[in-house]
Amino acid sequence: MSKVSLAKDKIKILLLEGVHQSAIETLKRNGYSNIDYVKTSLPENELIERISDAHIVGIRSRTQITDAVLDAAQKLIAVGCFCIGTNQVDLSAAKQRGIAVFNAPFSNTRSVAELVLGEILLLLRGIPLRNAMAHRGQWLKTAEGSFEARGKTLGIIGYGHIGTQLGIMAENIGMTVQYYDIEDKLSLGNAQQIQNLTQLLQSSDVVSLHVPETPQTRNLIGTAELAVMKKGSILINASRGTVVDIDALAEALEDKSLSGAAIDVFPVEPKSNDEEFISPLRQFDNVILTPHVGGSTQEAQESIGVEVAGKLAKYSDNGSSMTAVNFPEVALPELANRSRLLHIHQNRPGVLTQINQAFAQHGINIAAQYLQTDESIGYVVIDVDSDHSEVALKELSAVDGTIRARILH
Ligand SMILES: NC(=O)C1=CN([C@@H]2O[C@H](COP(=O)(O)OP(=O)(O)OC[C@H]3O[C@@H](n4cnc5c(N)ncnc54)[C@H](O)[C@@H]3O)[C@@H](O)[C@H]2O)C=CC1
Ligand SMILES: O=C(O)CCC(=O)C(=O)O
Question: Transmembrane ranges (predicted)?
Answer without folding.
Answer: none
